[in-house]
Design brief:
Layout: H1 2-14, H2 18-29, E1 35-38, E2 44-50, E3 53-58, E4 64-66, E5 73-75, E6 79-84, E7 92-97
Parallel strand pairs: 1-3
Antiparallel strand pairs: 2-3, 4-5, 6-7
């Protein structure tokens, strides 16, 4: 709905958390740092400050009372940071959600 879209836009542009401000300062003042990841802020966040400057906050895995529209009520978001770093390439950082299963994998080198 237009109301929830407006609330989301206002939240993203007006209310920058203290952790996001700290991450932004770290990322923009150190050219060699591409990802800053914090946790346990209660809200998960993925934010890109520049093409190669990403801030991730994994939130928490406990049940919480969510006060953000349209998600009012109790919620659990099992989010984690997925970061791929390879020398000479941009670091890829994503915020992902665990959905209760697992898949066993291994890298094989011949």
């Amino acid at each position: 709905s237009p109301f929830f879209t407006t609330v989301k836009i206002l939240k993203e542009t007006t209310f920058e958390s203290p952790m996001a401000r700290i991450a932004k300062r770290i990322l923009l003042s150190h050219h060699d740092i591409q990802v800053v990841s914090f946790g346990h802020s209660h809200d998960c966040v993925w934010k890109q400050f520049a093409a190669d400057k990403t801030y991730i906050n994994t939130g928490l895995w406990n049940e919480k009372i969510n006060m953000h529209p349209p998600f009012f009520g109790r919620s659990v978001r099992l989010t984690y940071a997925y970061i791929e770093a390879d020398a000479g390439r941009a670091t890829l950082a994503r915020l992902k959600r665990w959905k209760g299963g697992h898949q066993l994998m291994e890298d094989i080198y011949y």
